[in-house]
Amino acid sequence: MRKRRLFSWRTLLGLIFVALGVQSCFGSNAQPFATNVNGQSVTVHEGTFNGKFYLTVNGNLYVLNGADGTTQALVKTGNVMDPAVSPNGKWVAFVKKYQNYSDLCVIPATGGKVRVLRSGNGHFYNNSGFIHNTYAWYVQPAWSQDSATLLFLSDLQKENWYQQTGQDAPLLDLQVFAVPFAQPTGTPTAVAYATFGDGGDQNASYRPKHPNQIIYTHYTYDTTSQTQQVVQLYMEDPNAISNNPGVYYPGSPGGGYDPSIAITPTSSIVTDPAFSPDGNALAFIKTDNASNQMELDVMPVPPATITQTPNDPATEQLALHAYATASSHLLTSTYLSEPVWSPDGKQIAYYTDVNNTFDLWIANVSYDAKTGKYSLQGNPVQVTTGGVDAASHPVWTN
Questions:
Q1: Which residues make Cβ contacts (< 8 Å) with residue 131, sequence separation at least 6?
Q2: What are phi and psi of 230, to 5 degrees?
């Protein structure tokens, strides 16, 4: 009996030592690289991804290298958000946010001196007893595939649309603009307009291999009561407004005339679009109103012809067909945001909330050519622990 008890304790001690050894091995793979807003350490788990991630923690810009497990702080000013790496791999565009404005900036992808492409700094002034300002917000830059053009969101035309929107107030809702990277200080080209009063546009990006198509999230109110928020994904020809001067303009809900076309219905809240590397699939976040749960889904991109005749009723129905018939559900959680595809199109990274911190995770996905659907393979893998900036878009490169 005593021998059995001794053997049992020795076995238990051995298991404890093994467990501690295993725990030590896992711990050594989690390397701290940043400090979050609460002063806690943020770590990256080695061996969880290939390529590089550019993301922000506590307003600082980092690059995480999956090949050797190293990390590099590119900008540590505490006010950085929305990194975007040029497709040629040379530059990282990003935004530096201040109290009343933001700057659109760029830095070499390997690090170096920050250059301000456009500054939103301005001043307040009195106009007939009303206080106005010349400040501007620049948000969410995105590159064209040839790395020659930058999309961004801004309110820089806020004083231009009083008559067209029918409101005695500036148009503060963010709209989509573009500038040549070689000449960023010139007058930006208006690319997509907003509806007055409900948040404007977000998440604009070019479709890979289709330079005449962009996508963005559009916020507005319903056209009947103008009280219910409607959030949809829209596609558009980025040259439609500039090629037709005076035709298109922002407006009130249900008003105006817009060259964009909705690819998701008014019945669903759909945000955060992300094209696959080949431009044929689209990951997005869908929010269920009843449960407040969020989904990571994938759908095929509608036919490229939809942006050529966006105001045609038949085209409008065609544009909604892919979402209605071929969407693939990957996973559900309380919080999901900012999906981004791996360079080979076989994985999708995203932010989710675990233990009250927002961290980066990766899901393996598989495409079935027979059904045209995507599916989740295995369990998602956690990349960071400790909390990253979940409102600031990550970038995944080779």
A1: 124, 125
A2: -120, 125
The CA-CA-CA angle for residues 360, 361, 366, to 5°, reads 145
* Phi, psi torsion values for 6, nearest 5 degrees: -65, -45
CATH tag for 32-397 (out of 3.90.1150.10, 2.120.10.30, 3.30.430.20, 3.40.630.30): 2.120.10.30
CA dist., res. 288 & res. 325, Å (int):
18
Question: Confidence class of residue 254 from pLDDT cuts 50, 70 and 90?
Answer: low
Tokens of 307: 């942006």
Rounded to an integer, what distance in angstroms lies between the CA atom of residue 63 and that of residue 109? 9
Using the 8-state DSSP alphabet, how is residue 303 labeled? P
Classify burial at 68, counting beta carbons within 10 Å of its beta carbon; exposed 0-12, middle 13-18, buried 19 or more. exposed
Domain ranges, ordered by start, for the chain: 32-397
218 touches 191 (CB < 8 A): no
Residue 7 backbone phi and psi in degrees, to 5? -65, -40
Q: Is the pLDDT of residue 321 over 90?
A: yes
Strands 149-154, 175-180: pairing is antiparallel
Instruction: Say if residues 175 and 192 touch (Cβ distance below 8 Å).
Output: yes
Check whether 110 has a pLDDT greater than 50: yes
Residues in the chain: 398
CA-based R_g, the chain, Å: 24
Q: Which of 246, 238, 181, 192 is nearest to 219 (CA)?
A: 192
pLDDT at 256: 60
